[in-house]
Design brief:
Elements (H helix, E strand, L loop, with lengths): L5 E4 L4 E4 L4 E2 L11 H5 L2 E2 L4 E2 L12 E2 L8
Antiparallel strand pairs: 1-2, 3-4, 5-6
């Protein structure tokens, strides 16, 4: 069963860390969460991302930096 920050790969049937921009705060066996939250990483809200793979909480989703060129 995948822990927080890890999701189930349906092909290899193994746990892999959530990608940058995704998080998972529930363990697979925690029935207080729905199936989607327990097995797969959730995408951060719009204009937010994570700094690292394997993020475990929505609070890890931070605002993205925008670069404005000055001419």
């Amino acid at each position: 069963l995948c822990l927080e920050g890890m999701e189930l790969n349906n092909v290899s049937m193994s746990c892999e860390p959530c990608s940058i921009g995704y998080y998972k705060q529930a363990q697979a066996n925690d029935s207080s969460f729905n199936v989607r939250e327990r097995f797969w990483c959730l995408e951060c809200p719009a204009n937010k991302t994570t700094q690292d793979v394997g993020s475990t909480d929505l609070a890890k989703c931070i605002g993205t930096c925008t670069h404005i060129a000055v001419i």
